Amino acid sequence: MCEANVYLINEKGETKLFLESVDKIVPEGDELCLEDIFSRKKYIKAKIKEMALVEHRIVLEKSVD
């Protein structure tokens, strides 16, 4: 399996699970569209902080408006 879990760094600096089994990340304007293996989509204004693909882990940091 090639999907990854996506985590979000919150305002306290803690890393929390945001979406499991993400298959695709597509930038759309100032947002990222995350799509899981079941074709469910979530949108978030964030930037990629870290990608550890061997660990199937992607960390996002919310964009400041």
Detailed description of the structure:
The chain is mainly beta and 65 residues long. The chain has one domain (4-62). The protein is built from no helices and 6 strands. Strand 3 and strand 4 form a beta hairpin.
**How many runs of DSSP E, i.e. beta strands?**
6
Question: What does the average pLDDT come to?
Answer: 95
The largest sheet, given as strand count, sense and whether it forms a barrel, is: 6 strands, mixed
Strand portion: over 45%
Class from helix and strand fractions: mainly beta
Q: Any idea how many domains?
A: 1
* Shape, per Cα inertia axes: globular
Tally of helical segments: 0
Strand order of the largest sheet: 4-3-2-1-6-5
Order of helices and strands: EEEEEE
Euclidean distance between termini CA atoms:
35 Å
Helical content band: under 10%
Radius of gyration: 11 Å
Low-confidence region ranges: none
What's the quick description here?
The protein has 65 residues and is mainly beta.
Key attributes of the depicted protein:
65 residues; mainly beta; six-stranded mixed β-sheet; 6 strands
Note the topology.
Layout: E1 4-9, E2 15-28, E3 31-36, E4 41-44, E5 46-52, E6 57-62
Parallel strand pairs: 1-6
Antiparallel strand pairs: 1-2, 2-3, 3-4, 5-6
